[in-house]
Amino acid sequence: MVKNCKKMTRQILTILLIAAGLSLSAQESIQPFKKANVIIVYTNDSDSVNFKQFARHLMKFDYTIKESDSEFLTISTKYHQLKTKSGWNYNYSYDIFFNEGQVIIKIHWILGLTVELYGVKVY
Fold first, then answer.
1. What is the pTM of this model?
2. Mean of the per-residue pLDDT values for the chain?
């Protein structure tokens, strides 16, 4: 069970990193991914097991859970910030649903701009 959890964690991390890269760079040039914001992961585990494992995984990697519902098997995270580049902020959050062995991850992106005027930063 522990090996399976570690394997699932690595797979989900890989998928999320690939999705983040696609949405930041390749969306403009690859038509099927244009405006894509959903990832579906198929598992052999029950929805309640997936729910618990995914919640632990998010907390382990410093995500803040905004809401979770163990009855409806949903998790929502607060916005998490990617590293900024010269004033640009990329913030994202996840809404995660668990249904019949599927982990459905919806990604919400916000692009922000930080401007510094006379030593004061405006977000």
1. 0.62
2. 75
